[in-house]
Amino acid sequence: MKKNTDLGLLLLRAATGGLMLFHGVAKLQHGISGITGLLQQHGLPGVLAYGVYLGEVIAPLLVIVGLATRPAAAVVAINMAVAVLLVHSGDFLRLGENGEWALELHAFYFVCSIAIALMGAGKLSWSKGKGKWD
Q1: Are the C-beta atoms of 88 and 64 separated by less than 8 Å?
Q2: Integer CA distances (angstroms), 44 to 39, 54, 76, in order
Q3: Could you state, in order of their start, the residue ranges of all structural domains in the chain?
Q4: pTM over 0.85
Q5: Chain-centre distance of CA 31, in angstroms?
């Protein structure tokens, strides 16, 4: 049974981290000026936009490989919470054009990241599940 749990954790880490990484790659390719401006519109320092690289590039990579998995997954969850608060706060009660909850993808990333932070990396990871933060 434990083998299946570790395989399940690997799949969860790969899917959550891998799909989040696409968002990070887009930021690497196109920059973060839009995020900088958005933060400044909310009265926050624009330099905080560089945190998106942590939440959408570095943390997802750590989640995928299973190194410092718990804090990395927490960073992804925080990144999603901030994104929803800054960009999508008006979508909490809105449905998308196909009838889905407008925030379902954001919620999925958030909940999966919390689950990874709670469960850790498992044995199929860089740290073999024995690291201090895994």
Answers
A1: no
A2: 5, 18, 20
A3: 2-119
A4: yes
A5: 18
CA atoms of 70 and 13, how far apart (whole Å): 11
The full length of the chain comes to 134
Dump pLDDT digits (tens) for 76-129: 999 999 999 998 888 888 999 999 999 999 999 999 999 999 999 999 999 888
Distance CA 134, CA 119 (A): 8
Residues 14 and 3: their CA atoms lie apart, in Å, by 16
- Contact status, residue 122 vs residue 129, Cβ threshold 8 Å: yes
Determine the 3-state secondary structure of 42 from DSSP: coil
Q: How many CB atoms lie within 10 A of CB 36?
A: 18
